[in-house]
Write the structure tokens for this entry.
Amino acid sequence: MACVDPKARLGEGVQVDAFARIEADVTLGDHCIVRTGAVIRSGVEAGCHNEFCEHAVIGGPPQHAARPVETGSALIGKENVFREGVTIHLALKPGHTTTVGDNNYIMAGGHVGHDATLGNNVIFANGSMLGGHVTVADQAFISGGVAVHQFCRVGRLAMVGGHARVVQDIPPYMMVDGISGCIVGLNTVGLRRSGHTTADINQLKAAYRVIYRHGLAWREVISTLREEFPEGPASELAEFFATGTRGFAQERRGPSTPTLKLRIPDTEEANTEKGTEERLVLRAKAG
């Protein structure tokens, strides 16, 4: 049997499975589904057509050593999926909100910390974690096992590789390598899937070169972006960089002249008339 507090406000067609729990001061929109063992705690307001899967805990108290007695709330949009074991925490202080937008998919074991903000159409793979006050913009893709430090931002349509350790802001449209945590180019696959044109992608490539390849001072980067890209997708970059507080992920760059040396076994034909041995050393660019 499910446990639903009489003070909870449920819309039409809400499905609550056995052993689920919905506390007082919870609002669920029409046609939400609360699966077996899921817990929706006080302070949560969710729109319609959300699915809370088995053992998800939505609206838990913030994990903070100085957590006050009275905490904030959690505001969830519509048509989100929270898979098994997902945890979302309330904001730390009254009057503040942990916010999840619309059409997000948070896979098993995902965690959204207090005061975090998720946009719309974010995909969040298994076991990834957002610290407090993290912002993830629309259509970002967070791969499995990613840990995002508190107060960091992940820009729109950015893609973060699996097991990345994110400690600085990730600009919009960029792709982050999971091993190094550094930028490795544009998220071109995501851009194409989201309907961006070849002209859009070429504009972003030009902006990428301004940011990471031209060797400009930081103020020059921002002013150049504003001057050269007043419109189009690249126009978002200058504002993103101008409002950061934690610094920004850097491009992964290899050595300037990487080489790979291969030794070829000596053969009788390779011996010179003087009887000395010669070895062939091949040089090749890595990557």
About this structure: The first strand starts at residue 3 and ends at 4. The chain has four helices and 27 strands.
